[in-house]
Amino acid sequence: MRKNLVARLGVRTKRYALVIDSRKCINCKACVVACKAENDVPLGRFRNRINEETRGEFPKLLASFEPEQCHHCASASCVRVCPTGASWQRGDGLVLVDTDDCIGCGYCIIACPYNARFFNEETRVVDKCTMCVHRVDAGQPPACVETCPTKVRVFGDLEAPDGRLRELLSTRRYVVKSPQTGNDPHIFYLL
Amino acid sequence: MDEIRWGLLIVSYLFLGGMSAGLYFVSALATYLQDGGQPAYPRIARVGAMLAPWPVAIGSFLLIFDLGKWYRFYKLFLHFEWHSPMSIGSWLLVGFTLLSLAYFWAWLPAGVIDSVVSRLPKRLRVLGIVAWPGREGLRRPLAMAGFPLAVGVGIYTGVLLGAVQARPFWNTNLVAQMFLFSALSTGCAALILALSLHRDDLEAREARLLYSIDIVLILLELFIVIPYIVHGALSPLAVRQALALILGGPYTFAFWVLFLTLGLLVPLALELYEMKPVLLERASLHPNRVLAGATAALIIIGGFVLRYVFVYAGQVSSFQ
User: Fold this and answer.
1) Which of A44, B78, B150, B277 could form a disulfide with B25 if both were Cys (CB 3.0 to 4.6 A apart)?
2) What architecture is domain A5-190?
3) What is the mean pLDDT of residues B18-24?
4) Which residue of B has its CA nearest to A120?
Protein backbone atom coordinates (compact mmCIF):
# COMPACT_ATOMS: atom_id res chain seq x y z
CA MET A 1 0.00 0.00 0.00
CA ARG A 2 1.27 3.47 -0.92
CA LYS A 3 2.71 5.37 2.00
CA ASN A 4 0.29 7.97 3.21
CA LEU A 5 1.29 10.75 5.56
CA VAL A 6 -2.20 11.15 6.99
CA ALA A 7 -2.49 7.44 7.74
CA ARG A 8 1.00 7.47 9.22
CA LEU A 9 0.66 10.44 11.52
CA GLY A 10 -3.13 10.51 11.96
CA VAL A 11 -4.60 10.54 15.44
CA ARG A 12 -4.58 7.00 16.77
CA THR A 13 -8.17 5.97 17.14
CA LYS A 14 -7.66 2.30 16.31
CA ARG A 15 -5.04 -0.35 17.06
CA TYR A 16 -5.58 -3.48 15.03
CA ALA A 17 -4.31 -6.77 16.43
CA LEU A 18 -4.81 -10.50 16.18
CA VAL A 19 -5.60 -12.97 18.93
CA ILE A 20 -4.83 -16.61 18.15
CA ASP A 21 -6.20 -19.58 20.09
CA SER A 22 -3.79 -22.15 18.74
CA ARG A 23 -5.40 -25.04 20.67
CA LYS A 24 -8.29 -24.80 18.24
CA CYS A 25 -6.04 -25.09 15.19
CA ILE A 26 -6.40 -28.36 13.25
CA ASN A 27 -3.69 -27.54 10.68
CA CYS A 28 -6.12 -27.51 7.75
CA LYS A 29 -4.16 -24.61 6.20
CA ALA A 30 -7.30 -22.89 4.95
CA CYS A 31 -5.82 -19.60 6.19
CA VAL A 32 -2.68 -20.14 4.11
CA VAL A 33 -4.73 -20.90 0.99
CA ALA A 34 -7.10 -17.99 1.58
CA CYS A 35 -4.18 -15.61 1.96
CA LYS A 36 -2.54 -16.77 -1.24
CA ALA A 37 -5.81 -16.46 -3.18
CA GLU A 38 -6.67 -13.06 -1.70
CA ASN A 39 -3.27 -11.48 -2.12
CA ASP A 40 -1.89 -13.20 -5.22
CA VAL A 41 1.19 -14.48 -3.39
CA PRO A 42 3.74 -16.11 -5.77
CA LEU A 43 4.17 -19.86 -6.00
CA GLY A 44 6.27 -21.30 -3.18
CA ARG A 45 5.98 -18.15 -1.05
CA PHE A 46 3.69 -17.53 1.92
CA ARG A 47 2.61 -14.53 3.95
CA ASN A 48 1.35 -16.74 6.76
CA ARG A 49 2.26 -20.22 7.95
CA ILE A 50 1.47 -22.83 10.59
CA ASN A 51 4.37 -23.90 12.81
CA GLU A 52 4.03 -27.59 13.68
CA GLU A 53 5.49 -29.35 16.66
CA THR A 54 5.11 -32.99 17.62
CA ARG A 55 6.35 -34.56 20.83
CA GLY A 56 6.31 -37.95 22.55
CA GLU A 57 5.32 -41.40 21.32
CA PHE A 58 1.95 -43.07 20.95
CA PRO A 59 -0.15 -43.12 23.04
CA LYS A 60 1.45 -40.33 25.06
CA LEU A 61 2.01 -37.61 22.50
CA LEU A 62 1.29 -34.08 21.51
CA ALA A 63 0.87 -32.38 18.17
CA SER A 64 0.57 -28.60 18.38
CA PHE A 65 -0.11 -26.15 15.58
CA GLU A 66 0.67 -22.47 15.84
CA PRO A 67 -0.38 -20.06 13.06
CA GLU A 68 2.06 -17.22 12.50
CA GLN A 69 2.44 -14.18 10.24
CA CYS A 70 3.59 -10.59 10.60
CA HIS A 71 3.08 -9.54 14.23
CA HIS A 72 2.49 -5.88 13.26
CA CYS A 73 4.82 -4.93 16.13
CA ALA A 74 4.39 -1.62 17.92
CA SER A 75 8.15 -1.08 17.77
CA ALA A 76 8.83 -2.75 14.44
CA SER A 77 12.53 -3.34 13.69
CA CYS A 78 11.78 -3.67 9.96
CA VAL A 79 10.43 -0.12 9.86
CA ARG A 80 13.41 1.18 11.81
CA VAL A 81 16.09 -0.28 9.51
CA CYS A 82 14.44 0.56 6.17
CA PRO A 83 16.77 3.01 4.36
CA THR A 84 14.11 4.56 2.12
CA GLY A 85 11.11 4.64 4.47
CA ALA A 86 9.31 2.12 2.22
CA SER A 87 8.50 -0.02 5.27
CA TRP A 88 6.08 2.07 7.25
CA GLN A 89 3.43 1.82 9.92
CA ARG A 90 -0.04 3.31 9.90
CA GLY A 91 -1.47 5.04 12.93
CA ASP A 92 -3.69 1.99 13.43
CA GLY A 93 -0.64 -0.23 13.83
CA LEU A 94 -0.55 -2.02 10.47
CA VAL A 95 3.01 -2.46 9.17
CA LEU A 96 3.06 -2.11 5.40
CA VAL A 97 5.50 -1.90 2.48
CA ASP A 98 5.24 0.88 -0.06
CA THR A 99 6.28 -1.17 -3.11
CA ASP A 100 7.03 2.00 -5.11
CA ASP A 101 9.73 3.05 -2.65
CA CYS A 102 11.17 -0.40 -1.84
CA ILE A 103 14.56 -1.00 -3.46
CA GLY A 104 14.74 -4.67 -2.44
CA CYS A 105 17.84 -4.42 -0.24
CA GLY A 106 16.54 -7.12 2.11
CA TYR A 107 17.59 -5.36 5.33
CA CYS A 108 14.04 -5.63 6.78
CA ILE A 109 13.88 -9.35 5.94
CA ILE A 110 17.00 -9.87 8.05
CA ALA A 111 15.85 -7.49 10.81
CA CYS A 112 12.51 -9.23 11.38
CA PRO A 113 12.76 -11.60 14.37
CA TYR A 114 9.69 -13.54 13.18
CA ASN A 115 10.81 -14.28 9.59
CA ALA A 116 7.55 -12.72 8.45
CA ARG A 117 8.97 -11.07 5.34
CA PHE A 118 10.21 -12.50 2.08
CA PHE A 119 11.59 -11.37 -1.24
CA ASN A 120 8.96 -11.54 -3.97
CA GLU A 121 10.75 -12.74 -7.12
CA GLU A 122 7.92 -11.50 -9.35
CA THR A 123 7.76 -7.91 -8.10
CA ARG A 124 11.48 -7.87 -7.10
CA VAL A 125 10.60 -6.12 -3.83
CA VAL A 126 9.81 -7.19 -0.27
CA ASP A 127 6.45 -8.78 0.48
CA LYS A 128 4.59 -9.48 3.73
CA CYS A 129 1.22 -9.82 5.46
CA THR A 130 -0.79 -6.59 5.21
CA MET A 131 -3.54 -7.91 7.49
CA CYS A 132 -5.55 -7.62 4.24
CA VAL A 133 -5.55 -3.85 4.63
CA HIS A 134 -7.80 -3.45 1.57
CA ARG A 135 -10.46 -5.59 3.25
CA VAL A 136 -9.98 -4.06 6.70
CA ASP A 137 -10.44 -0.55 5.32
CA ALA A 138 -13.68 -1.74 3.69
CA GLY A 139 -14.94 -3.06 7.01
CA GLN A 140 -14.24 -6.75 6.37
CA PRO A 141 -11.97 -9.06 8.40
CA PRO A 142 -8.68 -10.35 6.89
CA ALA A 143 -9.08 -13.35 4.57
CA CYS A 144 -7.30 -15.75 6.96
CA VAL A 145 -9.65 -14.74 9.79
CA GLU A 146 -12.80 -15.03 7.75
CA THR A 147 -11.97 -18.46 6.32
CA CYS A 148 -10.81 -20.23 9.52
CA PRO A 149 -13.28 -23.10 10.11
CA THR A 150 -12.44 -23.59 13.79
CA LYS A 151 -12.36 -19.88 14.69
CA VAL A 152 -8.74 -19.90 15.80
CA ARG A 153 -8.24 -16.26 14.81
CA VAL A 154 -9.90 -13.20 16.25
CA PHE A 155 -9.18 -9.92 14.51
CA GLY A 156 -10.16 -6.60 16.01
CA ASP A 157 -9.38 -3.21 17.44
CA LEU A 158 -7.61 -3.03 20.82
CA GLU A 159 -8.92 0.50 21.34
CA ALA A 160 -12.58 -0.54 21.12
CA PRO A 161 -13.73 -0.67 24.77
CA ASP A 162 -16.41 -3.31 24.19
CA GLY A 163 -14.47 -5.17 21.51
CA ARG A 164 -13.87 -8.92 21.49
CA LEU A 165 -10.09 -8.42 21.72
CA ARG A 166 -10.32 -6.48 24.98
CA GLU A 167 -12.61 -9.11 26.39
CA LEU A 168 -10.31 -12.03 25.47
CA LEU A 169 -7.13 -10.31 26.64
CA SER A 170 -8.80 -9.32 29.94
CA THR A 171 -10.20 -12.74 30.75
CA ARG A 172 -7.70 -15.20 29.25
CA ARG A 173 -4.02 -15.87 29.83
CA TYR A 174 -1.86 -15.21 26.76
CA VAL A 175 1.74 -14.88 25.54
CA VAL A 176 3.51 -13.06 22.75
CA LYS A 177 6.41 -14.62 20.82
CA SER A 178 10.05 -13.63 21.56
CA PRO A 179 9.23 -10.49 23.58
CA GLN A 180 12.94 -10.17 24.41
CA THR A 181 13.64 -8.67 20.98
CA GLY A 182 11.81 -5.57 22.18
CA ASN A 183 9.57 -5.39 19.11
CA ASP A 184 6.34 -5.34 21.13
CA PRO A 185 4.57 -7.84 18.82
CA HIS A 186 0.78 -7.62 18.45
CA ILE A 187 -0.24 -11.21 17.84
CA PHE A 188 -1.49 -12.57 21.15
CA TYR A 189 -1.47 -16.35 21.65
CA LEU A 190 -4.07 -17.59 24.14
CA LEU A 191 -2.91 -20.28 26.53
CA MET B 1 16.05 -17.33 8.63
CA ASP B 2 15.18 -20.06 6.18
CA GLU B 3 17.53 -18.67 3.56
CA ILE B 4 20.61 -16.50 3.24
CA ARG B 5 19.41 -13.11 2.01
CA TRP B 6 22.76 -11.33 1.96
CA GLY B 7 25.35 -13.36 0.09
CA LEU B 8 28.85 -12.99 -1.30
CA LEU B 9 28.11 -9.65 -2.99
CA ILE B 10 27.44 -8.08 0.40
CA VAL B 11 30.43 -9.87 1.96
CA SER B 12 32.65 -8.49 -0.82
CA TYR B 13 31.24 -5.00 -0.43
CA LEU B 14 31.80 -4.94 3.34
CA PHE B 15 35.35 -6.15 2.71
CA LEU B 16 36.14 -3.70 -0.12
CA GLY B 17 34.55 -0.71 1.64
CA GLY B 18 36.60 -1.48 4.73
CA MET B 19 39.79 -1.87 2.72
CA SER B 20 39.32 1.58 1.15
CA ALA B 21 38.72 3.08 4.57
CA GLY B 22 41.95 1.48 5.78
CA LEU B 23 43.96 2.60 2.73
CA TYR B 24 42.74 6.17 3.17
CA PHE B 25 43.37 6.12 6.92
CA VAL B 26 46.97 4.89 6.66
CA SER B 27 47.73 7.13 3.70
CA ALA B 28 46.28 10.15 5.53
CA LEU B 29 48.38 9.27 8.56
CA ALA B 30 51.48 9.16 6.32
CA THR B 31 50.50 12.57 4.86
CA TYR B 32 50.02 13.99 8.32
CA LEU B 33 53.39 12.81 9.68
CA GLN B 34 56.00 15.34 8.62
CA ASP B 35 59.75 15.48 8.77
CA GLY B 36 61.26 18.94 8.41
CA GLY B 37 58.22 20.40 6.64
CA GLN B 38 58.08 17.55 4.13
CA PRO B 39 55.85 14.44 4.31
CA ALA B 40 57.87 11.86 6.19
CA TYR B 41 56.47 8.90 4.19
CA PRO B 42 55.59 10.31 0.75
CA ARG B 43 55.51 6.91 -0.98
CA ILE B 44 53.07 5.39 1.53
CA ALA B 45 50.88 8.49 1.25
CA ARG B 46 50.92 8.47 -2.55
CA VAL B 47 50.38 4.74 -3.08
CA GLY B 48 47.58 4.77 -0.51
CA ALA B 49 45.93 7.75 -2.20
CA MET B 50 46.23 6.06 -5.61
CA LEU B 51 44.56 2.88 -4.37
CA ALA B 52 41.96 4.17 -1.88
CA PRO B 53 39.01 5.15 -4.14
CA TRP B 54 38.82 1.93 -6.19
CA PRO B 55 37.85 -0.85 -3.79
CA VAL B 56 34.97 1.21 -2.38
CA ALA B 57 33.84 2.17 -5.89
CA ILE B 58 33.74 -1.50 -6.96
CA GLY B 59 32.06 -2.40 -3.67
CA SER B 60 29.34 0.21 -4.18
CA PHE B 61 28.52 -1.30 -7.57
CA LEU B 62 28.26 -4.76 -6.00
CA LEU B 63 25.94 -3.27 -3.39
CA ILE B 64 23.68 -1.78 -6.06
CA PHE B 65 23.53 -5.03 -8.04
CA ASP B 66 22.48 -6.91 -4.91
CA LEU B 67 19.27 -4.86 -4.73
CA GLY B 68 16.02 -6.39 -5.92
CA LYS B 69 15.57 -3.39 -8.20
CA TRP B 70 19.07 -2.04 -8.81
CA TYR B 71 17.89 0.98 -10.82
CA ARG B 72 16.02 2.23 -7.75
CA PHE B 73 19.26 2.82 -5.81
CA TYR B 74 18.76 6.60 -6.28
CA LYS B 75 15.85 6.37 -3.84
CA LEU B 76 18.45 5.94 -1.09
CA PHE B 77 19.34 9.57 -1.71
CA LEU B 78 15.81 10.93 -1.85
CA HIS B 79 15.37 9.99 1.78
CA PHE B 80 17.37 10.35 4.93
CA GLU B 81 16.22 7.97 7.66
CA TRP B 82 18.33 8.77 10.72
CA HIS B 83 17.27 5.54 12.45
CA SER B 84 18.41 3.28 9.60
CA PRO B 85 22.13 2.39 9.58
CA MET B 86 21.88 1.66 5.86
CA SER B 87 20.57 5.15 5.12
CA ILE B 88 23.32 6.81 7.18
CA GLY B 89 25.84 4.45 5.58
CA SER B 90 24.87 5.22 2.00
CA TRP B 91 25.32 8.95 2.57
CA LEU B 92 28.66 8.30 4.30
CA LEU B 93 29.73 6.12 1.40
CA VAL B 94 29.05 8.84 -1.17
CA GLY B 95 30.88 11.45 0.91
CA PHE B 96 33.84 9.15 1.45
CA THR B 97 34.08 8.14 -2.21
CA LEU B 98 34.01 11.75 -3.40
CA LEU B 99 36.61 12.73 -0.81
CA SER B 100 38.86 9.81 -1.73
CA LEU B 101 38.66 10.83 -5.40
CA ALA B 102 39.64 14.39 -4.45
CA TYR B 103 42.51 13.00 -2.38
CA PHE B 104 43.52 10.79 -5.32
CA TRP B 105 43.64 13.89 -7.53
CA ALA B 106 45.68 15.81 -4.96
CA TRP B 107 48.34 13.08 -4.98
CA LEU B 108 48.25 12.27 -8.72
CA PRO B 109 51.78 12.84 -10.13
CA ALA B 110 51.85 15.79 -12.54
CA GLY B 111 53.79 13.67 -15.05
CA VAL B 112 50.90 11.21 -15.35
CA ILE B 113 48.39 14.01 -16.00
CA ASP B 114 50.68 15.64 -18.57
CA SER B 115 51.24 12.41 -20.48
CA VAL B 116 47.48 11.70 -20.59
CA VAL B 117 46.58 15.27 -21.60
CA SER B 118 49.23 15.40 -24.34
CA ARG B 119 47.55 12.45 -26.05
CA LEU B 120 44.13 14.15 -26.10
CA PRO B 121 42.82 16.07 -29.15
CA LYS B 122 43.73 19.76 -29.14
CA ARG B 123 40.33 21.02 -28.05
CA LEU B 124 40.47 18.95 -24.86
CA ARG B 125 43.97 20.10 -23.89
CA VAL B 126 42.40 22.66 -21.53
CA LEU B 127 41.98 19.68 -19.21
CA GLY B 128 45.64 20.28 -18.41
CA ILE B 129 44.42 22.60 -15.64
CA VAL B 130 43.79 19.37 -13.68
CA ALA B 131 47.54 19.43 -13.06
CA TRP B 132 47.11 22.67 -11.08
CA PRO B 133 50.21 22.83 -8.86
CA GLY B 134 48.28 24.28 -5.90
CA ARG B 135 46.61 20.91 -5.29
CA GLU B 136 49.70 19.83 -3.31
CA GLY B 137 48.58 22.22 -0.60
CA LEU B 138 45.25 20.39 -0.40
CA ARG B 139 46.82 17.07 0.58
CA ARG B 140 46.98 17.68 4.28
CA PRO B 141 43.52 19.28 4.65
CA LEU B 142 41.99 16.43 2.62
CA ALA B 143 43.86 13.89 4.72
CA MET B 144 42.53 15.45 7.92
CA ALA B 145 38.97 15.66 6.56
CA GLY B 146 39.22 12.00 5.58
CA PHE B 147 39.95 10.62 9.05
CA PRO B 148 36.38 10.87 10.37
CA LEU B 149 34.85 9.69 7.10
CA ALA B 150 37.25 6.74 6.76
CA VAL B 151 36.57 5.71 10.35
CA GLY B 152 32.86 6.24 9.69
CA VAL B 153 32.83 3.96 6.66
CA GLY B 154 34.93 1.34 8.46
CA ILE B 155 32.72 1.27 11.52
CA TYR B 156 29.41 1.60 9.67
CA THR B 157 29.85 -1.79 7.99
CA GLY B 158 29.80 -3.28 11.47
CA VAL B 159 26.98 -1.08 12.76
CA LEU B 160 24.87 -2.23 9.81
CA LEU B 161 24.99 -5.75 11.26
CA GLY B 162 25.23 -4.90 14.97
CA ALA B 163 22.07 -2.77 14.93
CA VAL B 164 19.83 -5.75 14.11
CA GLN B 165 18.45 -6.94 17.44
CA ALA B 166 16.76 -9.94 15.81
CA ARG B 167 20.14 -11.60 15.08
CA PRO B 168 21.95 -12.37 18.35
CA PHE B 169 25.21 -13.25 16.57
CA TRP B 170 25.50 -9.60 15.46
CA ASN B 171 23.68 -7.75 18.17
CA THR B 172 26.62 -6.96 20.44
CA ASN B 173 28.50 -3.73 20.89
CA LEU B 174 31.72 -5.40 19.73
CA VAL B 175 30.95 -6.11 16.06
CA ALA B 176 31.29 -2.49 14.94
CA GLN B 177 34.76 -2.08 16.50
CA MET B 178 35.80 -5.50 15.19
CA PHE B 179 34.90 -4.48 11.65
CA LEU B 180 36.58 -1.10 12.03
CA PHE B 181 39.94 -2.44 13.19
CA SER B 182 39.81 -5.24 10.66
CA ALA B 183 39.04 -2.69 7.93
CA LEU B 184 42.01 -0.52 8.90
CA SER B 185 44.22 -3.62 9.12
CA THR B 186 43.24 -4.89 5.64
CA GLY B 187 43.92 -1.40 4.24
CA CYS B 188 47.32 -1.39 5.90
CA ALA B 189 47.97 -4.88 4.54
CA ALA B 190 46.96 -3.77 1.03
CA LEU B 191 49.61 -1.05 1.30
CA ILE B 192 52.26 -3.52 2.50
CA LEU B 193 51.34 -5.81 -0.41
CA ALA B 194 51.44 -2.96 -2.95
CA LEU B 195 54.82 -1.72 -1.70
CA SER B 196 56.30 -5.22 -1.57
CA LEU B 197 55.28 -5.66 -5.23
CA HIS B 198 56.61 -2.19 -6.13
CA ARG B 199 59.71 -2.08 -8.34
CA ASP B 200 61.58 -0.12 -5.66
CA ASP B 201 62.27 -2.04 -2.49
CA LEU B 202 60.12 -1.70 0.59
CA GLU B 203 62.23 0.69 2.64
CA ALA B 204 63.11 -0.13 6.23
CA ARG B 205 61.45 2.96 7.69
CA GLU B 206 58.29 2.42 5.62
CA ALA B 207 58.09 -1.19 6.70
CA ARG B 208 58.61 -0.10 10.29
CA LEU B 209 55.69 2.35 10.14
CA LEU B 210 53.30 -0.06 8.42
CA TYR B 211 54.20 -3.01 10.64
CA SER B 212 53.84 -0.87 13.77
CA ILE B 213 50.38 0.31 12.74
CA ASP B 214 49.30 -3.18 11.76
CA ILE B 215 50.58 -4.82 14.95
CA VAL B 216 48.54 -2.35 16.99
CA LEU B 217 45.45 -3.00 14.85
CA ILE B 218 45.77 -6.79 15.09
CA LEU B 219 46.20 -6.55 18.86
CA LEU B 220 43.07 -4.40 19.03
CA GLU B 221 41.22 -7.05 17.01
CA LEU B 222 42.36 -9.71 19.47
CA PHE B 223 41.19 -7.50 22.33
CA ILE B 224 37.75 -7.61 20.75
CA VAL B 225 37.53 -11.19 19.47
CA ILE B 226 38.41 -12.72 22.83
CA PRO B 227 35.76 -10.78 24.82
CA TYR B 228 33.27 -11.42 22.02
CA ILE B 229 33.63 -15.16 22.52
CA VAL B 230 34.02 -15.18 26.31
CA HIS B 231 31.19 -12.73 26.88
CA GLY B 232 29.00 -14.47 24.33
CA ALA B 233 29.50 -17.81 26.04
CA LEU B 234 28.30 -16.22 29.30
CA SER B 235 25.27 -14.55 27.71
CA PRO B 236 21.58 -15.53 27.53
CA LEU B 237 20.65 -18.67 25.69
CA ALA B 238 19.94 -17.09 22.28
CA VAL B 239 23.44 -15.58 22.18
CA ARG B 240 25.05 -18.86 23.23
CA GLN B 241 23.10 -20.69 20.55
CA ALA B 242 24.25 -18.13 17.99
CA LEU B 243 27.85 -18.49 19.15
CA ALA B 244 27.57 -22.26 18.69
CA LEU B 245 27.73 -21.53 14.95
CA ILE B 246 31.47 -20.86 15.38
CA LEU B 247 31.98 -23.14 18.39
CA GLY B 248 31.37 -26.49 16.70
CA GLY B 249 28.85 -25.28 14.14
CA PRO B 250 29.23 -24.90 10.35
CA TYR B 251 31.47 -21.79 10.53
CA THR B 252 33.96 -23.15 13.08
CA PHE B 253 36.75 -23.94 10.62
CA ALA B 254 36.44 -20.63 8.76
CA PHE B 255 36.47 -18.64 12.00
CA TRP B 256 39.17 -20.39 14.00
CA VAL B 257 41.53 -21.56 11.26
CA LEU B 258 41.10 -19.17 8.33
CA PHE B 259 40.36 -15.97 10.26
CA LEU B 260 41.80 -16.23 13.75
CA THR B 261 44.89 -18.37 13.09
CA LEU B 262 45.88 -17.65 9.49
CA GLY B 263 44.37 -14.17 9.29
CA LEU B 264 45.40 -12.76 12.69
CA LEU B 265 47.86 -14.84 14.74
CA VAL B 266 50.22 -15.94 11.96
CA PRO B 267 50.50 -12.42 10.44
CA LEU B 268 51.02 -10.99 13.93
CA ALA B 269 53.84 -13.47 14.54
CA LEU B 270 55.41 -12.71 11.15
CA GLU B 271 55.24 -8.96 11.72
CA LEU B 272 56.73 -9.27 15.20
CA TYR B 273 59.50 -11.44 13.75
CA GLU B 274 60.25 -8.78 11.12
CA MET B 275 60.19 -6.08 13.79
CA LYS B 276 62.46 -8.05 16.15
CA PRO B 277 65.61 -5.98 15.45
CA VAL B 278 63.70 -2.78 16.25
CA LEU B 279 61.93 -4.15 19.29
CA LEU B 280 64.77 -6.08 20.95
CA GLU B 281 68.08 -4.95 19.51
CA ARG B 282 67.40 -1.27 18.76
CA ALA B 283 68.74 -1.91 15.27
CA SER B 284 67.02 -1.13 11.98
CA LEU B 285 64.96 -3.85 10.36
CA HIS B 286 65.66 -5.42 6.99
CA PRO B 287 62.30 -6.04 5.41
CA ASN B 288 61.92 -9.27 3.51
CA ARG B 289 59.68 -8.64 0.50
CA VAL B 290 58.41 -12.19 0.23
CA LEU B 291 57.56 -12.33 3.92
CA ALA B 292 55.90 -8.90 3.76
CA GLY B 293 53.80 -9.92 0.76
CA ALA B 294 52.76 -13.20 2.37
CA THR B 295 51.84 -11.47 5.64
CA ALA B 296 49.74 -8.92 3.80
CA ALA B 297 47.99 -11.57 1.70
CA LEU B 298 47.10 -13.56 4.84
CA ILE B 299 45.64 -10.47 6.52
CA ILE B 300 43.59 -9.62 3.45
CA ILE B 301 42.21 -13.16 3.13
CA GLY B 302 41.51 -13.19 6.87
CA GLY B 303 39.58 -9.92 6.60
CA PHE B 304 37.41 -11.37 3.86
CA VAL B 305 36.77 -14.55 5.87
CA LEU B 306 35.78 -12.49 8.94
CA ARG B 307 33.08 -10.76 6.93
CA TYR B 308 31.97 -14.00 5.33
CA VAL B 309 31.58 -15.68 8.72
CA PHE B 310 29.73 -12.75 10.27
CA VAL B 311 27.35 -12.11 7.38
CA TYR B 312 26.42 -15.77 6.94
CA ALA B 313 26.37 -16.95 10.55
CA GLY B 314 24.51 -13.83 11.66
CA GLN B 315 21.64 -14.44 9.28
CA VAL B 316 21.26 -18.01 10.50
CA SER B 317 21.14 -16.96 14.17
CA SER B 318 17.75 -16.11 15.66
CA PHE B 319 15.70 -16.01 18.83
CA GLN B 320 13.53 -18.98 17.88
Assistant:
1) B150
2) 2-Layer Sandwich (3.30)
3) 96
4) B68
